[in-house]
Design brief:
Layout (H helix, E strand, L loop, with lengths): L2 H6 L6 E11 L9 H17 L3 E6 L7 E7 L4 H9 L2 H4 L3 E11 L9
Antiparallel strand pairs: 1-3, 1-4, 2-3
């Protein structure tokens, strides 16, 4: 077995490109006047994106270690499209969230479904 084929046997064959969105506390994080309405709009946005399969998974980060409050894995053609999609979140538009995007390769999540 060659060195290349030895390395390749440990690489998953079903890798797919995604964008990891780190949802961080934004500059307006502590503005709480519209919190209940904004949270409902944020959750509705996430559900819409999950059902449309633009977001594959999403959820909160539940410790207070730093300014990271949630993560999302999303599908997009490129970073610009991913950024536009992530920043359409009502929390980002209100300045409560700051979206940080990173391209990643992961095993395909095509079979993963979120249930409501």
């Amino acid at each position: 077995m060659s060195a290349k084929s030895a390395r390749m046997k440990d690489v998953p064959r079903n890798l797919k490109g995604y964008f990891l969105c780190l949802m961080r506390k934004g500059p307006q994080w502590n503005e709480t006047g519209d919190s209940p309405e904004l949270m409902l709009a944020h959750l509705a946005f996430l559900r819409t994106q999950l059902e449309a399969r633009r977001f594959m998974i999403t959820g909160p980060v539940v410790d207070d270690a730093d300014d990271l409050v949630g993560i999302t894995l999303l599908q997009a053609e490129n970073l610009e499209e991913a950024s536009q999609l992530a920043n359409d979140d009502p929390g980002a538009r209100a300045g409560r969230l700051r979206m940080e995007l990173r391209p990643v390769f992961l095993p395909s999540l095509d079979a993963v479904r979120v249930e409501y």
